[in-house]
């Protein structure tokens, strides 16, 4: 069942039903503009990762600022964005299953659609689906650049897959997918640079080998919010796939810059608004936002603007706060903003964004691509 919208435009923030997913529109727009400004002089394009926001509304705002398209992880997400008017979509993942591939090939009739592979069996399956649909699918080879998740070995093994794709009458070789996910949350600049240096060298070797075999590599994609500036400066990557930058979460806020201070490139724009529902015990308050309201996979949320209040423990429907002093004890009914530890799975818990500016609700946007469907 679709959740009832928690507010209507024009009401005050303290009138929003909770828990609710808030976007601070001023901070959000700052982040959109900041990314466009940072990438403009590099010539590297943004293919923003839609698994963060799950919203064609937000995708169009990113593309209005120069993004070339969107990344998704699942066929169902690709469908939502194609039907929502996004013309260029990369499924930055391997897709297995005849029915899913048939859906993806059908989708390519209304949007430029690409998918990743890291095994010859993937290529064979996409080739069959493309032939049956009468389409030519664009296929990227995913290489392992150090994360040891998906991706074939860089170099000859990757080049062999690219040759196989390029030789197919039903497929088009689109380039390389080279995302180093494990580098994104390394806290120091030196750690992040070291890992991306390894990734960049793997990409460079593979692109050179493809060139020797007469195969052009139109796209080299990867990078995330934690490292995109390093990839953009490498001279190797052509697209970055940052997603969380539009919202920023509590975990990314722990990354450090070269001076050892928290990175301040982007602003916190995504919050879960929660209400204090109980204050029966000294030094403790309880919110109506627990594990069903905010993701905990990257740690507890932080309480925005309240350094003396700590989100201490969680249950399904309750979040327990430790209050640092009597003077900061919130009242029953008071609403607090939480900064999620991880924005992507938090967004997936909601049907609606509530856009707030100047203390009032300005807009409601549906979270159209949420849910576990493939």
Fold and architecture overview:
The structure is a single chain. By secondary structure, the chain is of the alpha/beta class. The protein folds into two domains: 112 residues, Beta Barrel (Lyase, Ornithine Decarboxylase, Chain A, domain 1), CATH 2.40.37.20; 203 residues, Alpha-Beta Barrel (TIM Barrel), CATH 3.20.20. The protein contains nine helices and 18 strands. Strands 1, 11, 12, 13, 14, 15, 16, 17 and 18 form a nine-stranded mixed sheet that branches. An eight-stranded parallel barrel has the order 2-3-4-5-6-8-9-10, surrounded by six helices. α3 packs parallel to α4, α4 crosses α5 and α6 packs across α7. The protein is globular. The relative contact order is 0.17.
Query: Which value, in Å, is the CA radius of gyration?
Result: 22 Å
Write down the secondary-structure element order.
EHEHEHEHEHEEHEHEHEEEEEEEHEE
What is the tally of helical segments?
9
| CATH topology name of the largest domain | TIM Barrel
In the CATH scheme, the class of the largest domain would be: Alpha Beta
Major beta sheet, specifics? 9 strands, mixed
Q: Stretches where pLDDT falls below 50 for ≥5 residues?
A: none
Summarize the amount of helix as a percent range: 25-40%
Count of individual domains: 2
Apparent shape: globular
How many distinct beta strands? Answer: 18
Q: Given the helix and strand composition, which structural class is it? A: alpha/beta
Mean pLDDT, nearest integer? Answer: 95
The CATH H-level homologous superfamily of the largest domain: Alanine racemase
Strand content: 25-35%
